[in-house]
# Entry
Amino acid sequence: MASPAVPLFSMDGVSKRYGGVKALEKANLTVEAAQIHAILGENGAGKSTLIKIMSGVVAPDEGRMLLDGREIQFASPAAANQAGIVCIFQELSLVPDLSVADNICISNPPKRFGLIDRRAQRRIAEEALARAGAQDIHPMAPVKDLPLSRRQMVEIAKALARNPRVLILDEATSALTAADVAKVFVVLKRLRAEGLALLYISHRMHEIAELADQCTVFRNGRNVATYRAGTKSDDEVVELMIGREYSHVFPPKQALAPSAKPPVLEVRHLSWLDRLKDISLSVRAGEVVGLGGLDGQGQRELLLALFGVLRGVSGEILIDGERASVSSPSAAKAKKIGMALIPEDRKTEGLMLPMSVSVNLSFAALDRISSGGIVDRAKERQLIDEMIELLAIRTAGTDIPVGSLSGGNQQKVVIAKWLMVKPRIILLNDPTRGIDVGTKAEIYQLLRKLAATGAAIIFYSTDYDELIGCCDRVLVLYDGAVKRVLVGDEITERALISSALNMSAQSEGADMASATSA
Amino acid sequence: MKDWRYRLSEHRGTLLAFVFFILMFVIYASNHPAGFTANVVQTAANKGVLLALVAVAQTFVVLTAGIDLSVGMVFVLTNCLASAIVVGSPAMVGLGIVGVLLTGLICGAINGAIVIYGRLQPIVTTIATGAVYFGIALAMRPVPGGDVDSDLSDALTGRLFGVLPVSLIALFVVVLVIWVPFRRSAIGRATYAVGSSEVAAYMSGVPVQAAKFFAYVLSGLIASMAGLFLTFITASGEASAANGGSYTLYSIAAVVLGGVSLFGGSGSAIGAIFGALMFRTIGDLLFVFDLDPLWQPLFQGVVLLAAVCLGSVRLFQIRNRLDLFE
Amino acid sequence: MNTRAGALWRKVDPAVATAFGCIVLLLFLGSLYSSSFLSPEYLLQQLKVASFLGVIATGMMLVILLGQIDLSVPWVVAVGGMMSTAATGWGPTGEAFAIPFGILCGVALGFANGFGVAYLRIPSMIITLAVNAVAQGLMVVHTGGFSPQDSSSAAMRFIATGHTLLGVPNALLVWAVVGGATVFLLSRTTFGRAIYGIGNRERAAYLSGIRTQRVVLLTFAIAGGLSAFGGVLLAGYASKAAQAMGDAYLLPSIAAVVLGGASILGGRGSYIGTIAGVILITLLQSILSVVQIEEAGRQVIYGAVIIAMLLLYGREKVAR
# Structure
């Protein structure tokens, strides 16, 4: 064991760049044994890069890392594991076609006569699952047959089987049910007692409040503060994370004039598998309706269902008060309906990164700028220029690959691409994820501007502040159903969080940490 | 309690292939004009083992989520080589066999090196290397000919105790010596992991490149065994582009019929073997029922088409259309 | 002026430039061997031979742009040749419709490919192999396993071997028309944009409201038609169809597209590159045979040249 003077793990002046973007800049971090150390920060603050460097997935450009006071360098994740640093990744690192036991022992299977000893492997797997509190998972079950929350438990068991000294959990609880979270917390506390250092990354403040001993806040690739857990208020922490007062970035909301017209979009009793349960909502012209709740409660599925992507959706969709059937994205964007979806992941769903800015911009609106299947290039050119100006897209030209733009400008291209269709209904799936604050503010302005010109907007965000700042109404989803509708001044962080956790309105003021073990 | 169920579902593809093969073979043998005799089995076995070996070779690469379109050409190349060097004194024959196997191994290694370290796509790579291998075969045997050690040839294509085809025993030995250890070794596990999800495998510290390379090398080695065995059967070498092409095609068919996923990461060489034997039996069924042999290619094509379409049944379960585009 | 030239230069794909450079190099090496390599007659003859591959490679290119591959070329080419000559044998009406009939048979097979890829989501490599096998089976049944006796129609011979103005071979004109139509399709139509979009990221194209399945289906059908048209031309050139007449066109058509700078993963490539690739392959083939290298050596050089060129500029990016 390390002497108290030497921390178990430390990182000194570590930087990492991707192209021109600084993901991490001269970051310092010290992790002590027998502690749970929480890492906080906005998306894009450098947390995931930090983890990737610690666990050997990427190599740092500069700086050094020390384990037990000795300098270390990892050529691969395997090397990091060998040294005792194990990470539970947010994107699962399980191999779907192999069994649970195979996965748990994947990097270093027990061997007999040079071959894998299946009996020993099974024993190790059973032990690891038991340690993770997941005895209900059969070690021979193929991972691809397990639901997401079970897979996450396997992921934790897999990490434990490697006997880590430093265990990194990156949003490890985001896919778990409340019961599992409680189990995992028990496990994590036991591991801390056993002398492990745990690095805990989460967006859930109450989890951090319950677990962490020490906290470090990251912003723009730098560590901006380290403090003992419980010594700062939530507001102070949020200020550290965003670096300034948040209220100025949102444009004022306009009051909606009463109107006799039917809502542009109305949804009645929408259900899909067990993921969407009897959802009804309506959006009027000029209204911004937010979707809130914890991540993965059916918000994405709701948007996809509206956009005609899901099969077997039951319920009614009314456009301008008349029933409509939306069976595909191409039907959704047709003039009669005029729907647009700004998808979740711009890199795989919104853009074709190697293709030019102009091709991407006009891609969804091709049918609007062509006749007889032949593209009217003059019209295309004109619309593209308009859009670039309207959204102030900063690009060196329209012929360069869209992938060479910054994240914020890429996201603007995605939005512009859909504005070219002149949509009346705009669905946004977490459109500000991973982009800079300046562009975020521009997007908020744009949303309001669009609403003012009569668009009906549904806006899903994982960021509560955005919902508070942008939306006229917020539907909070829990387990595929609308739990609560917040209107106007009711939209507060407290109300959003308590309804997201499915707490009843009365217990709103109660300690939130207790909700997790419910 | 539930263990056997998991085991069963793990080997479902292989078992299905086995059951279908037995079914077809029974139909075949019971309708054969000569009846279920040792001779019938021997002829069927020799032809079946050839394709089975090529299919096993294909399996290794397919498990990594790749494809080897040169496998038939390696088969042809090693056939031509064997017809030249596996003759003479026992020592010469021994050396010749080693030479043939080594050649296959090198062909596989070249494919693997280009795909993994050259970072080219397996399809294009193996089409191009296939042309090279075929060219070399053609240079060696511009016209069919050559010879092979006749004692060895008779022994390997004949029968043991008058009933058991030696070729089947040889195939069994190959499975036992190469496949079974591979399946249970760490590198074999790594191959499955890489084929199933390369990113997850890399994240888990699996030696991704080594596992892929090893699979390509083994593939080449087994393809050369098939080439060697063809030489024992025909006692000559022939650089036939048609032969190479059809064995490549049939090996993919056999792999699909044998329950090996073309997306990588699941299936077994044993399944591919039964897939190959099944595919051969299907072709021969037509003879037994006295149909015009002209219909054989069409029949085989339709069976293949039907088999690959069967895999699409899962599409009906997809409820989120985005899952189609993964 | 200067900047415009610069912009033009930046637009030139290095792969295409390399391919054209290789053509010049080949001609130069050939002219060292014999001055006749630079004669107009030789060059026109080469372009005529290249036209057959050019038509077939056009279809292959469209499919590759989608990120798919068409391995059914060998027997779809044969179907085109055999069905058009068969139609010629059915009398005057058949003879009149020989060319469209041959092409239509190819379109039908292409539809089967496209249906499998777009709607059944079968990997194109597999479904096209299976369709190839079925096409072969059909032709074996049709011909009895022998080379068909029917000869090609006068129209087929005219477009494949005839000359019109200034001694330009008709086959070359045919390729020019096919190529021109393809360039227009790819650069000016929504269909062409959709092909590139799907090849880059089908998911994004689908979510942009493109009917991706229909585009894939139609593209494969066009490719099937073009392969069969290649077969029609070849049958016209040789006056009749033959078993395995298409076997020699699978590898070269893929190689031509890939050597022309198109990515085998889809979404990237230009028709000018395919033209360069086709001419390059044809010249390579011609020079190898003129300098009397055997078929064996030709195959080896083919494969080696393709691998070497791809290693030069066709590598995937490193993941890490």
Remarks:
- Chain C has a mean pLDDT of 88.
- Residues 133 and 239 of chain C are 25 Å apart (CA to CA).
